[in-house]
Amino acid sequence: MNILFDLNHPVDVNFFKNAMLQLQEEGHHIFIIFRGRGKLEKIVRYELAMFPIEKIGEHKKGFTKKVMAQLHRDYAIIPFIKKNKIDLVACFGPTSVFSTRFCGIPYLAFDDDFEYKIPFYHANWFATRHIFPDFIEFSNSKTYKFHGFKELAYLHPNYLQTSKQVLEEHGIQPNKYVFIREIAGVSLNYKDSTSILSKIVEAVKKKGLEVVLSLEDKDVKEKFSDDCIVLEEPVSDIYSLMYHALFAISSGDTVARETSLLGVPTLYTGGREMVVNKALVDLSVLDESTELTFILDWISQQESNKKEKMQREVLHTIENEWDNTTSVILKHINDFT
Q1: Edge-to-edge strands of the sheet including 247-250?
Q2: Could you report the per-residue pLDDT of 293-316, keeping only the tens digit for each?
Q3: How far apart are CA 69 and CA 88, in angstroms?
Q4: If you ran DSSP here, which 8-state letter would residue 95 be given?
Q5: Among 187, 2, 151, which residue's Cα sits nearest to residue 82?
Q6: Is 154 a member of any domain?
Q7: Which range marks the domain in which residue 247 is found?
Q8: In whole angstroms, what separates CA 319 from the centre of its chain?
Q9: What is the pTM of this model?
Q10: What is the DSSP string of 11-60?
Q11: How many other C-beta atoms lie within 10 A of the C-beta of residue 144?
């Protein structure tokens, strides 16, 4: 079977990678397309070099430009599907659903962002199956649900192995640094976020901790390079860097869930209310605030004994309550093989 994976964000690479490798072992032919955006091309070609890869389309800023670029990309995907005799397309979201529907083949849309209404309903209306966590209450004849998080496609203990080697490469020690992710105000769903990064870094440094900083907007790198370890993508073993941090702060919701699922106390500062985050908030591994006073107070309260307890509790929950999301992906694809 010829299976096409359409990747539009860096996290899509991790989300599908284990499923791709398993499907290839089973004798299926894997094809990858991606939309040009930031460091995505570098990450895709680094992580998935074993598969044929083609770049189609570019990421644009602004609603109108996004829509036009997406329609143009859908049109460009049609000849790719026909040329390679694709039997099924899987994507996180709806970004190639029109071209797939035109070609008359199944489209599996995975999702977890109910609050971002336009792409959510776009996927639901046109996909063959719309697959997302059961924390989202929306349902109809196309929806299929699982109990867990997209991030457990790659952070589940069946797949994830952490080490301390990457810490040595950066000259840091476990629990002696903080992992911070700052999202640029490019995507529509982050357009109202306000950066308070400088004050956060200052508070962390006063606590005697190093700062490992992941920036989406590389234009501000020089501003923080003297006080922080600024990562360059693709990052070697980034999840080990997250796992060994004393705590994490992220304005991006995906990274906030990733560090939370690694049992690292996390503060999400992106300002979006997302139902998919609620289970992690209820587990007390994830806090949410955009208020500087709260953030600085939260930073002052983080200690290593809290993290150790939290990692045990999160691991127990993953192993006993939440789904292995790669198994979910494979189940839905295999339904069509």
Answers
A1: 229-230, 210-215, 177-182, 247-250, 266-268, 286-288
A2: 999 999 999 988 889 999 999 999
A3: 23
A4: T
A5: 2
A6: no
A7: 165-320
A8: 21
A9: 0.90
A10: HHHHHHHHHHHHHHHTTPEEEEEEEE-TTHHHHHHHH-TTS-EEEEEE--
A11: 16
What would you report as the CA-atom Rg of the chain, rounded to the nearest whole angstrom?
20
Q: Is residue 27 part of a domain?
A: yes
Reported confidence tier of residue 184, pLDDT bands at 50, 70, 90: low
pLDDT digits (tens, 9 = 90+) for 221-236: 788 888 899 998 778 8
Task: Say yes or no: 188 and 138 in one domain.
Answer: no
On whether residue 188 sits in a domain, the answer given is yes
Amino acid present at 92:
F
Q: Same domain, yes or no, for 99 and 178?
A: no
User: Rounded to whole angstroms, how far apart are CA atoms 96 and 73?
Assistant: 8
What DSSP state is assigned to residue 188? G
Q: What percent of the chain has pLDDT over 90?
A: 74
Confidence category of residue 195, pLDDT binned at 50, 70, 90: low
User: Cα(256)–Cα(250) distance, rounded to whole angstroms?
Assistant: 5
Decide if 158 is inside a domain: no
Count of beta carbons in the 10 Å neighbourhood of residue 307: 20
CATH of the domain at 125: 3.40.50.2000
CA 66 vs CA 72, 81, 138, 318: distances in Å: 10, 22, 26, 37
